[in-house]
Amino acid sequence: MIKVAPSVLSADFTRFYDAIKMLEAAGADYIHCDVMDGMFVPNITFGPYMIRDMRKATKLTLDVHLMVQAPERYVEAFAEAGADIIVVHEEATTHLDRTLQMIRAAGKKCGVALNPHTPLSVLEYVLDGLDQVLLMSVNPGFGGQSFLPYSLDKARALKAMIDARGLDIDIEMDGGIGLHNVAEVAAAGVNVLVAGNAVFCAPDPAEVIRRLKLGK
């Protein structure tokens, strides 16, 4: 089953509450929250207070993607703010296993994000303890980028790795995903789709979410 996780980075922040309620009505499964620190990626977005306020406004799963240097410094704060899933970048933390243990100890689902160039081999010894792997299909830090085609090969290889171990792990993909390429993304084994502009810039966001869930 495909789940859709619209990225609120593409929302109109002057009407943020309305955007959240629109996503609920439109059938979104998650709200994808891109947290950027201006160091790991060039942009700066929002922090735990925004997650806290979003938690008050919705019961949808808050999928918090920490694009920050040394994310272990912030795990507790985002967990307390109400994140349901906390995803950290392998490239941003020196002690990945320790950081994942912190997330699990906080009672949250944990995930690892990989930049486009990062090989799947870095997951070898942590894969069994993950709930989700997020494959970046663009270079992180900016919305509206074009999808990197080799991300499909990476997704297929990850799906094979997960299946070979008999694990139940979601494969999430983020960047350049829309109705134009959802079929091939879904066919590659991705079952959580992050979509920003494809949802928020659409005349009918509910129809876009419905079609993304169908994988076509």
Give a summary of the structure in a few sentences.
The chain is α/β, with parallel strands linked by helices. It is built from eight helices and eight strands, in the order E-H-E-H-E-H-E-H-E-E-H-E-H-E-H-H. It has a single domain, classed as TIM Barrel, CATH 3.20.20.70.
State the name of the first-level CATH class. Answer: Alpha Beta
> Beta-strand level of the residues, as a percent range?
15-25%
The radius of gyration computed from the alpha-carbon positions, rounded to a whole number of angstroms, is 16 Å
Order of helices and strands: EHEHEHEHEEHEHEHH
CATH architecture: Alpha-Beta Barrel
Dominant shape: globular
Indicate the percent of residues in helices.
25-40%
Contiguous low-pLDDT stretches (5 residues minimum) are none
Distance N terminus to C terminus? Answer: 13 Å
Please explain how this structure is put together.
The structure is a single chain. The chain has 216 residues and is of the alpha/beta class. It has a single domain, classed as Alpha-Beta Barrel (TIM Barrel), CATH 3.20.20. It contains 8 helices and 8 strands. The chain has an 8-stranded parallel β-sheet with strand order 1-8-7-6-5-4-3-2. Helix 5 links the parallel strand 6 and strand 7. The longest helix is centred in the last third of the chain and has 14 residues.
Characteristics of this structure?
single chain, about 220 residues, alpha/beta, TIM Barrel, 8 helices, about 20% strand
Write the layout of secondary structure elements.
Elements lengths: L2 E4 L9 H11 L3 E7 L11 H10 L3 E7 L7 H7 L3 E5 L6 H10 L3 E6 L17 E5 L14 H14 L5 E5 L7 H6 L4 E4 L1 H4 L4 H10 L2
Parallel strand pairs: 1-8, 2-3, 3-4, 4-5, 5-6, 6-7, 7-8
